[in-house]
Design brief:
Largest sheet: 12 strands, antiparallel
Order of helices and strands: HEEHEEEEEEEHEEEH
Distance between the termini: 55 Å
Number of helices: 4
Strand order of the largest sheet: 6-5-4-3-2-1-12-11-10-9-8-7
């Protein structure tokens, strides 16, 4: 029985030892993926901001500017792209909607972002765009890869349609989570006018005829939970100007928008709770199960060898039975 038990334990030890690398290097890339049908929204606010009144073409202080960002997974488009991409793909149709303190639209910029479901690397396909303009993204946008490293990443800026480094600045603690802090500075750059303008009758084409151009600069900050690669908080010191042309009435420039954009508190709480949950799932695939099965395999192997050793130990010699004395005949 000991021999059979040791063989069963040995088989279990081999299974656990094989499960460890299998879970980390085979199951993790196939199971840790962004869902194709994911939907999420986020509200950011810039309090005490500066905003351009297009009716008077004067910049004025306002109590608050609100930015609503939505990301909606397009399952049908993802399945179509996967046919030629040969890998799992996520298509996010996003919208950045900016509204003033009166609730009226300031701008809205749609995007289509196509990326690998596991690595978050961009996937180039028909339909990839920002505000209707075709783009070929390089680098990440919105989300970092699973198991984010302490290094700089290439990050795509939708306003300039360009990619530049976003720098790792250190490790911090945010709402009980260890996070990596990243920062990117976009210097003043000429950018396209939004396709949808806040005043009826004003179009990018009509503004272009006046010779007025739009310029943009920002300091982008993200606090990223490294296991999931999800930002738990973000800020932008955002600035936009209109420069030159007859639209400004001889002025060199006028502020179109300036403010410190921050996530609203209720969305911070929701995001942190969601990331904590997803962090546990990712750790189960990359740490808990692989290391746990490896340790269990070692223990089972040790127990199997112990039983085998006890089975092979020579038994004590049987006691010698003394012969009964025979009666002596007279």
């Amino acid at each position: 029985m000991r021999r059979k038990a040791s063989l069963v334990l040995l088989a279990c030890a081999v299974f656990c030892a094989a499960l460890s690398p299998l879970m980390r290097w085979y199951a993790f890339p196939r199971l840790a993926r962004i869902p194709a049908n994911q939907y999420q929204d986020m509200v950011l606010e810039a309090k005490d901001a500066t905003l351009l009144d297009y009716g008077t073409m004067q910049a004025k202080k306002v109590p608050k500017v609100t930015i609503v960002q939505t990301l909606k997974g397009n399952v049908a488009a993802a399945k179509e792209i996967e046919k030629t991409a040969g890998r799992p793909v996520v298509v996010w149709d996003s919208l950045s909607y900016v509204q003033g303190p009166d609730g009226k639209m300031v701008s809205k910029v749609p995007e289509r972002y196509i990326f690998d479901a596991h690595t978050q690397d961009p996937v180039h396909a028909t339909g990839e765009m920002v505000d209707g303009d075709p783009v070929t993204r390089q680098g990440i946008e919105f989300k970092w890869p699973f198991l984010t490293q302490k290094r700089d990443y290439e990050y795509f800026d939708a306003q300039t349609r360009t990619t530049s480094p976003i720098h790792y600045k250190g490790t911090q603690t945010f709402r009980g989570l260890k996070v990596y802090y990243f920062e990117q500075t976009i210097p003043w750059t000429r950018v396209p006018m939004p396709k949808t303008m806040p005043v009826q009758g004003i179009t990018p084409e009509s503004v272009a005829k006046t010779g007025t151009t739009r310029w943009y600069s920002t300091v982008r900050k993200f606090w990223v939970e490294p296991v999931t690669g999800a930002p738990v908080y973000g800020e932008e010191d955002h600035k936009e100007e209109l420069r030159g042309g007859t639209l400004l009435g001889g002025r060199a420039s006028v502020t179109a928008f300036a403010g410190d954009v921050k996530m609203r508190e209720d969305y911070i709480e929701h995001t942190v709770a969601l990331v904590k949950h997803n962090r546990t799932l990712v750790l189960a695939l990359t740490s808990y199960v692989p290391w746990g099965s490896l340790v269990l395999g070692i223990l089972l192997l040790a127990l199997s060898l112990l039983l085998e050793a006890r089975t092979r130990r020579p038994e004590d010699p049987a006691p010698t039975r003394s012969a009964e004395p025979e009666p002596v005949s007279a």
